[in-house]
Design goal:
- The structure is a homodimer.
- By secondary structure, chain A is of the alpha/beta class.
- Chain A contains 14 helices and 11 strands.
- The first copy, chain A, folds into 2 domains: 207 residues, Rossmann fold (3-Layer(aba) Sandwich); 78 residues, 6-phosphogluconate dehydrogenase C-terminal like domain (6-phosphogluconate dehydrogenase C-terminal fold), CATH 1.10.3660.10.
- A 6-stranded parallel β-sheet of chain A has the order 3-2-1-4-5-6, sandwiched between helices. A 3-stranded mixed β-sheet of chain A has the order 7-8-9. A two-stranded parallel sheet of chain A has the order 10-11.
- Chains A, B: One of its GO terms (biological process) is tyrosine biosynthetic process.
């Protein structure tokens, strides 16, 4: 084991697109990993492929408790509360992380149960419109942002237990094994950011899909690439979209209100004698150009050596000023490496 | 010459992405075609590639007049009025069409000048964020919708001149040569449809780009595929976006107001105690699924034999009931073939 290896086995609860892909990456890396899947058919398929997967939650949690595993909750938001109770009962000393796309609500449930000392929030920014074990694949997280929260270190003003620091470091290492980039962000900052770049796009796509459909057969016949791209995420399962957006209502409201103000201004201009959309259109163009520039090598480069466009900060967890380094990385959207 | 051939030479004014690609397709088909380009460098490049391209507008229009060409106005909206005046002076008997993305304003300029008898509106639904001769390419229009207007036939209640019917038929044949599908639509129906599926997507993309950018470095770092796809058209030149949207203000207002109502409802629900986005999300999902189903073979099929998903209507221009057939095709978003 090198200093870069996760120091404990990993137990994944929920083997859908995210959990299943994580299982594949960790197993391919040679790390001890096993999991639980609710679906019998998914369990059977995964087992056939040679993975250690059980259909029995209690047994899986007990095994995690016995070998001091890091538990990954890879279930949708509605399943989290019940799973935390199961953890409290069957794996009371394991550290755990999650992959839910909204962090405040998960953290509230964790705090209600007094489990902050053994929890580190996570959110891999990867996924497709598909779901389930059969959609999982190795390499899903390569070059993706994987948010890791650190509120507990800030809230305890540096007096965070050493066990938590070790847990946090293991989660970073797990992220890096998958090829993802570990981006530190506090719960509220994360939720505010994803409201803008993930949840608002869903709301706008649903809206556009409806307005286009209202145009009937002629409008649909004329729709081309821009309509298809702009409504793509409207084909996501409605339950998933609702779970994300409704759970993040306060942050999404802020983003939606900004959008509504821009759209109302555009509306007023279009309704006036001399419509002039230059303010919105110029601002949108500049914003998109900045996005392209920032994204840079991340997706556009044709160079065979992909260099991340995210700034990197190397830090020693628990070391002098490390929490301030995390806050600095957060403000830059930077990735971290630990030593 | 077969019955499917355009009965006259074609003269294209403006050799940017659309005009240039049309020139390439017609020349590849062996049809007599020449054009005018304002840019000296574009003219030089096109000439080097063996195309008949002039830098002299008056000379080009006089040549069109001399050989009875079909003139295609492939210029942006702001250049149309001046060009119509030049046509009136230097090519007073030529029939013409255009490729501008909004049809009401062009038709108003045509009617102001009493040129309805020799005009048929057109709009190919193809394009990229690039522009200019260097962006043009053969095959750009393959399988694209190319709208052809027929208001003059409706307005004259079937008493439309035979010359106009022949002109209209030639425009259909020209469209079919490019591999595009000719979709008949009246000016106002066209403008209402493109407001929904082309102009509103631009407005929403600009808005989303700004709101995402407002989230600063963290939000931009976390932005992934859904944000990139949803803001893609915000990278279009601002002047082009403004020209489309501002010129189509009344129809765009209708579409934007529908969007605003849906977004306001979503906002109200998010702000309430028990946020429930099911109405919007379910409707958006259903709309997008319908769009996919309609688009069907048009873009998703992996079959080597591409079959259009648009219904086809075969008609004889000027024949009994042909205008009603056009109205029927319009309501279906159908493509037409002429015999």
């Amino acid at each position: 084991m090198t200093s870069r290896d996760v120091t404990r086995p990993i137990c994944i609860i929920g083997l859908g697109l995210i959990g299943g892909s994580l299982l594949r990456d960790l197993a391919a890396h040679g790390h001890a990993v096993y999991g639980f899947n609710r679906s019998t058919s998914g369990t059977r398929k995964a087992t056939k492929e040679g993975f250690e997967v059980s259909n029995d939650l209690v047994e899986t949690l007990r095994r995690a408790e016995a070998d001091g595993a890091l538990i990954v909750l890879a279930v949708p938001m509605p399943a989290v509360a019940g799973l935390l109770d199961a953890l409290a009962e069957h794996a009371p000393s394991c550290g755990f992380t999650d992959v839910v796309s909204v962090k405040a609500e998960v953290y509230a449930l964790v705090k209600e149960r007094g489990m902050e000392d053994r929890y580190v929030g996570g959110h891999p920014m990867a996924g497709t419109a598909e779901s389930g074990w059969s959609a999982s694949r190795a390499g899903l997280f390569r070059r993706a942002a994987w948010v890791i929260t650190f509120d507990h270190a800030v809230d305890t003003e540096g007096e965070v237990p050493q066990e938590w620091i070790e847990l946090w470091t293991d989660v970073v290492r797990m992220i890096i094994i998958t090829g993802a980039e570990a981006i530190p962000a506090r719960v509220d900052r994360h939720d505010a950011a994803v409201a803008r770049i993930s949840h608002l796009p869903h709301i706008l796509a649903e809206t556009l899909a409806v307005v286009g459909d209202n145009g009937g057969a002629l409008a649909q016949s004329l729709a081309a690439g821009s309509f298809r791209d702009a409504t793509r995420v409207a084909s996501t399962e409605p339950e998933l979209v609702r779970a994300m957006c409704e759970t993040n209502a306060p942050a999404l409201l802020t983003a939606l209100d900004e959008a509504l103000e821009l759209l109302q201004d555009a509306r007023a201009s279009l309704a006036s004698e001399t419509s002039d959309l230059s303010e919105l259109v110029d601002a949108g163009y500049r914003s998109r150009v900045r996005f392209d520039a920032r994204e840079g090598n991340r997706s556009e480069s044709v160079s065979p050596v992909k260099i991340s466009s995210r700034p990197v900060l190397r830090l020693h967890p628990g070391g002098e000023g490390w929490v301030n380094q995390l806050i600095q990385a957060e403000s830059l959207g930077g990735r971290i490496e630990v030593f």
